[in-house]
Amino acid sequence: MAWTEQYLAAVLRSIPEPKRTDVERELRSSIEDAIEERLATGMDAPTAERAVLEALGDPTALAAAYTGQPSYLIGPELFPLYRRLLPRLLAIAVPIAALVMGAIKIVGGGDLQAAIASGIATAINVGIGIAFWVTVTFVFLERAGPARQARSELVAATGRWTLERLPKVSDGRIAVREAAGEIATSLITIGILVFVGGLSTTTASNVEVPLLDHDFRTVWLPILIALVALRGFGHVLAYNAGRWTAFLAFSMVLLHVLFAVPLVVGALAGWIVNPDFAQVIHWPDLGSGAGAPMLAIAVGTTLATAWEIVRIVLRARRAQGLGPLVGASSQSA
C-alpha cells in the first residue's frame, strides 16, 4: 500500500506533533477498513486503494479538518490553492520587477549603485504587495457570501484531486540536487563578494578609488568570504551525513549569524563604503547608516539570515523526527 503510506505522510506533516500518533492510527484504520469493503465487492487491491484515497480528497484539507481549528482566514477548501499560487507568483514577479526597475534606472542615466538600490527596494515592495493582495483576495473568496459561486468555480477549475497530486515521501536523505544548489549558492555568493571588493571608480586626476572602505575590504571581506566557504563545506558534510544533524545545524546557524553581524553592524555604522568613493560619484549618503542603501543591506541581511536559520532548524527537526536513514541499519550490520 505505497499510496496509503504516501497519503498518510502528506496528512500527518500538517498535524501538530502531539496529535500525530492518534490521527495516524485512526486514519490508517479507516482507510484499511474502506479498502477491505471494496475488496469484498470484487474490486482489485490497487483500484480499491486508489478509490478510497481519492474519496478522502486533498490531504491538506483533511489535515485541516482533523486539527479542528475553525479560526482560519483561508479555509481548507482554498488553502491548498493559495499555498501553491503565492510562492509561484512571488518567484516570478519579484525578480522581474527588480530587474526591470534596475534597468530603467540605468537607462535613465543612473549608476550601478542606484540601480541595485532601486531593484532591492522594488523587490521588497512588490513581494509585500503580492503577498498582501493575494491573501486579501483569498480571504474575500472565503468569507464573502457573494463570492461563494466564484470560490466554487475556482476550486472546480483546479480539477478533481487525484493520487498523482500527492507530494513525494522523503526518507530524510538530502538530495544531490539540494546539496548542489546550496553549494552553488555559496560559490555565487563568494563570487559576488570578490566582485564587489574589486569595484572602484576614478577621480578627475585618474586616481583609483575603491568602493569598500580599506579596513572592511582588507579585514572583514576575507572573513566574510571564509564564512561563506565554510557554509558551503557544511552542506558537503550534511550531504555526506545524509541529513542535518543537530551539530551540523548548530554550526550552520552560527556561521550565518557570524556572517550577518559584521554586515548589519557595518552598514548601520557606516564603515562598509569608502567615503571618498561616495564623494567621487556625488552620492555622499551612499555609505551613511541612515541612508537607503545601507538600511537595505541591514534589513535584507537580517531577513535573509532569519529565513536561513528557520530553514535549517526545520530541516534538522524534520530529520530528527524521521528516525534512522533507510539502509542505515543494513550498512551498520
Written description of the protein model:
The protein folds into three domains: 2-67, no CATH class; 79-165, no CATH class; 176-322, no CATH class. With 333 residues, the protein is an all-alpha fold. Helix 1 (2-12) packs across helix 4 and helix 8 packs antiparallel against helix 9. The protein is elongated, with a radius of gyration of 26 Å. Helix content is 73%, strand content 2%. It is built from 13 helices and two strands; from the N terminus they run H-H-H-H-H-H-H-H-E-E-H-H-H-H-H. The relative contact order is 0.07. The longest helix is centred in the middle third of the chain and has 32 residues, at 112-143. The chain has helices at 2-12, 17-40, 45-56, 59-67, 79-107, 112-143, 148-157, 176-198, 214-241, 246-269, 275-280, 292-321, 328-332; strands spanning 200-202, 208-210. The protein has a two-stranded antiparallel sheet.
